[in-house]
Amino acid sequence: MSETGEDAYARAGVSQGDADLAVSRLVAALATANTGRPSRQVDLSGHYAAVMKLDETTGIALSTDGVGTKLLVAEQLGRYDTVGIDCIAMNVNDIICVGAEPIAMLDYLAVEHADPDQCEQIGIGLARGAELAGIEIPGGELAQIGDLVKGFDIAGACFGTVALDSIIDGSAVSPGDVIIGLPSSGIHSNGYTLARAALDGISMDDEVLGRPLGDILIEPTEIYVKAVMALIDSPVSVHGLAHITSGGLDNLLRLKADVSYEVNEPLPPQPVFDLIARRGEVPEDEMYEVFNMGCGFCCVVPAKDEVAALGLLRGHYPSAARIGTVAPGPKAVVRS
Fold this sequence. Notes:
CATH superfamily of the largest domain: PurM-like C-terminal domain
Helix content: 25-40%
């Protein structure tokens, strides 16, 4: 990230450098745990979901995530019926990246005080998200912790199953493969600290880009489960899958192969990204490092399968398109 870009995000209240260091320190501390028995964990360091060996053939994929400061937008609008969709999307979209089928999610809702109407609306979003992802929510937790939380926070923990010999970790990605991008529905659930800072001064009711700003910002995160599982279950060879979240297209680097991802035909960003860039004076490079910029998910397939993959994916997302190709290393994402 450029110095200018890093300063812009830091001024908004988020230091990606500090976050990376914090995660590495946390992971290092966790690595010292001694359970007294051999680990069941499959080596997928840095990937989207963890996989634990259930038996000799089956793995359980695990992920956890929340919605972040998009919740502040929901509070400003007094609309809580979509944030449950966001919570499920952020979890199931990670689970499918290892080739696993999401099965269920548990939600954790922390509130300043229990508001029945608010909780009902959150539940409506969770139910809708569960339908879109094809999962169940068999339980969860509601915690009233007003001494810690002002407003509310929601997070989830999701699990799915995958055959151990069918895990998709990106190691099969090789030069000549093509990268297919699936469109996002907007900002999704990342970068809202910067987005809100950039758009400060515009009322949520103000018409921008043909819609009230609040409607644009509250648009729920796309759930890619049905399209991606259909691709996995098809004859297409799926070499890599990437959920494009914080970090943008650099999330492709979570895939295991040491290759270069050359993105020369990116999907068009929604107009809200240009609005954020202009009002926040955010450089283009940083926009692509913080936001999905119109592409919420990537599928990497062999060139011979491009037509078949696009045909299948366009049945779910008509604007799905080839956005680039894989080239020999060094490991990097190159936009041109």
